[in-house]
Design brief:
The complex is a heterodimer of chains A (229) and B (192).
Chain A lengths: L2 H10 L6 H9 L1 H22 L2 H15 L6 H22 L2 H14 L11 H9 L3 E3 L6 E9 L2 E10 L2 E8 L8 E5 L2 E7 L4 E6 L4 H11 E3 L5
Antiparallel strand pairs in A: 1-8, 2-3, 3-4, 4-7, 5-6, 6-7
Helix pairs in contact in A: 1-3, 2-3
Chain B lengths: L24 H21 L2 H17 L10 H20 L7 H5 L10 H13 L2 H11 L5 H8 L3 H18 L16
Helix pairs in contact in B: 1-2, 1-3, 2-3, 6-8, 7-8
The chains are: A alpha+beta (229), B mainly alpha (192).
């Protein structure tokens, strides 16, 4: 074993006890020193990984603040910044156009055109799509022709297509999106509505069908699963 | 016909395993491993909320294929593998750019030795900033306890490619910790 191979092995597996490596270390002081350093580093890597990364940030940020020179105005400046940021965020949130949510719903549905072509899905697939978002649905499963758990605005949400007398209707159960009242919209040739629900809201999209009717039905059929039992 | 109730305990949004079988041994086992899985997912995804989602989806997948778990003592590596794959799936699907802590890490640039909590903090950030191709095998090895051969199989790489990645990951961390970097090694090959 040469030094390059020894260092590759030490760097990759610092605790390696391969006989060839042990033999090389007995005759090569430089590689033995390298291994000592890597074992020390390894102990610290293990310590570092034992803590989740974001907890590490909070602790580290805190310790940096503690070690910084004290400035009497800093707490006030920090408080003012936090207050200002909170007010700004709240204002933006209150003023945000609900159209944005509608637009995102339409964009999501457009990105999954195959959803309109589904024939039949199993109760298990429906269960998977719903349970991932912590909701259940009391509806005849043979009317559902598409069921996926989709990543939408930072959460997995059930994406269903329900067959109605007027054609298929897409339903997104948005447990984490709140709306104050029904919001109708028309975009990309689709009629849609977002209605409040327990929990969150429900978006319904149709091609010419009655989205309001489907949404009202869904409001009755969707229920939240308990978060812990 | 009403939809049948889920056949199995599933994860609620709160991240627990509820349901009629919540006292079942497998459910308890999954719950007991959950903190490990979340921490592992966090080191991969670098985001707490996404890590929680990954673990939730992974546990659902694990529950659905629980028949594949023959030996309870193998549950941890089995679940870690599922979490890694779920992370990879999400990463490929969404091409996530999750580098939320780079700015914080910038303030700690420069050589340090790992003697204090602050220095350990710097090391954590250095690990966070490793490219996924280096961070992933390192986390699999150190946190997951996987061997080089197991990592190679999981990542569809040759064993020598994994050795090279592990070497480079630690070599980068060496430099950040103020030690001299070892000369780089030649690529150990790519996919197995």
């Amino acid at each position: 074993m040469n030094c390059e191979h020894a260092r590759l092995l030490i760097g990759a597996e610092p605790r390696s006890s391969a006989p060839e490596l042990a033999q090389h270390l007995q005759t090569c002081a430089a590689c033995a020193q390298f291994r000592e350093e890597m074992l020390a580093l390894e102990a610290n890597i293990e310590r570092a990984l034992q803590q989740p990364p974001q907890a590490a940030v909070q602790r580290g940020a805190g310790s940096r603040l503690r070690s910084a020179p004290r400035q009497p105005w800093r707490p006030w400046a920090l408080a003012a910044s936090v207050l200002f940021a909170s007010v700004a965020v709240l204002t933006l949130w209150l003023l945000r156009p609900t159209d944005t949510l509608a637009h995102d719903v339409v964009a999501h549905v457009q990105a999954e055109p195959e959803s309109w072509l589904g024939q039949q899905v199993s109760a298990q697939e429906i269960g998977h799509a719903l349970n991932g978002a912590g909701v259940a649905l009391d509806v005849t499963s043979d009317k559902i022709t598409y069921a996926q758990s989709c990543w939408f605005r930072g959460h997995y949400v059930p994406h269903l297509v329900v067959q109605t007398a007027q054609g298929p209707a897409t339903v997104l159960i948005l447990r984490h999106e709140q709306v104050k009242g029904p919001r109708n919209f028309h975009e990309a040739g689709m009629n849609g509505v977002i209605v409040p629900a327990q929990p969150g809201s429900i978006a319904v999209l149709t091609h010419g069908g009655n989205a309001d009717l489907v949404a009202r039905q869904m409001q009755q059929d969707v229920r939240a699963l308990p978060e812990s039992q | 016909m009403r939809n049948p109730q889920p056949e199995s305990p599933v994860l609620s949004v709160g991240g627990r395993l509820p349901g009629a079988d919540s006292g079942a041994p497998l459910t308890r086992l999954f719950e007991s491993l959950r903190p490990d899985l979340v921490r592992f997912a966090q080191w991969l995804a670098r985001d707490r909320a996404i890590a929680e989602d990954i673990v939730q989806e992974s546990l659902l997948r694990a529950w659905r294929s629980r028949e594949a778990l023959k030996d309870a003592s193998a549950a941890r590596p089995w679940l870690l593998t599922i979490v890694r794959r779920e992370h990879a799936r999400l990463y490929e699907r969404k091409r996530l750019e999750l580098v939320p802590l780079d700015e914080v890490a910038e303030t700690h640039a420069g050589p340090v030795s790992v003697d204090t909590e602050d220095d350990l903090f710097a090391l954590r950030h250095a690990i966070m900033r490793l490219p996924l191709e280096y961070r992933e095998p390192l986390v699999l090895q150190v946190l997951g306890g996987f061997s080089t051969e197991e990592i190679a199989q999981e990542l569809s790489l040759s064993a020598s490619a994994v050795l090279t990645r592990l070497f480079r990951a630690r070599n980068k961390l060496r430099v950040i910790c103020g030690l001299s970097g070892a000369p780089d090694v030649s690529d150990g090959g790519g996919a197995a």
